Structures are given as C-alpha cells and as structure tokens.
Predict the structure of histidine kinase.
Amino acid sequence: MGLGETGEVFIAGSDGLLRSNTRFPETADILSEAPQMDAISMALEGDTGLINGVRANGVPVHTAFMGFTFKNIHWALLADQTNSELFAPAASLRKKMIRDISIIMIGIVLISILVARGISRPIIAIGHSMKQVANHDLLSAIPFANRHDEIGTIAQSLENLREDLSEAAEMQVDTEFKGAAFSGSSVPMMMVDRDWTCRALVPPQVLV
C-alpha cells in the first residue's frame, strides 16, 4: 500500500516485528523490526496520533499510528510519508507567496515612482512659471491650469494672477503713453467719461 511517491502503510505486532510487506523492501521487510518503535508502542497502548520518525534508511518521515485488536491480539497500524514529500505543497505555496509578494512590492514601488513623478513634475513646472512671473515675463501661459485637482487649482490661480498683472502692465503703458501725449499737447484738452463728466482738463503747453 502506498501514499504518494514515498508513503506506505504497514502492520506491526506486539513484538515490534512487521506483519506485512512494505512498499520499499530496502527499508524493511515482513517479520523484520519496524523502525518506528515509539509509534508502535503508543499504538499498542491504544493511542492514536502523529509523530516524527526515521525509516531504516535514515530518511525522516511523519508517521500516523493507531492500535486495533483482532482475535484478542493487539496490532499496530502505521502509515508514514517522507517529510520532503509531505511538506512539498507547503514549500511550493511559500515560494509562490514569496514570488507574488515580491511582484506586488515591485509594482508598489513602480507605482510610487510614477505617482511621485506625476506630482513633482507639475510642481516643478509651476515653480518655473512663478519665477517667470516674478521676472515680469507675463506672456507665457501657466501649464497644468486645465487640471481638475489641487495642482490645477494652484496653476489656475497663478494664471489668473498672470492675466491680471498683464492687464495692469498694459494699462500702465497706455496711461504713460496718453500722459506723454497730453503733456506735449499745444492745445487745451479735456477728458470726460461715458456720462460726459469732465475728469481732467489739460491746459495748452507753451513751447519755448
């Protein structure tokens, strides 16, 4: 009888000798001494359980045992399997879990890098635009102003500031131009608003 590639089931008597052929004759044979004497002793005492053991060839195994009585004679029924085969599924699962966790961790790192770049790149660009505005460069549009997030809000605020400063600069140039024109006029000039209310009266300049 066998379990997997390395498992076997056998019966032992109260004298500790095997009463059945084993699957692997090189380890033990019928009427030879069974290697798992501790398991046989507990089985003959009526116990049932699972313990670590070693076969005659020195291979470590897990042995399940139980005792039974047949025609007033106590017998021990044992089934064992090598540790390497018994724990192979667990070892395979552990390797798979380690591999999967490694893949997940690598994915998290890559996503973190991409997210960090996605955040830092717009901030760096907006910071560059702030320097341009501070240096009176009011012609370049602010990037990322069309985004619908916090970065877009910051960029849109800076864009509004740039537009306001640009309009103020244009008004200042226009005012200076008109002021220069008024100051150099040789005829009287009057400025009125839309309601025809006089806002300024410029007398003629006497040219010397």
The chain has two domains: 2-86, 90-175. Residues 2-86 form a domain with the Beta-Lactamase fold (CATH 3.30.450.20).
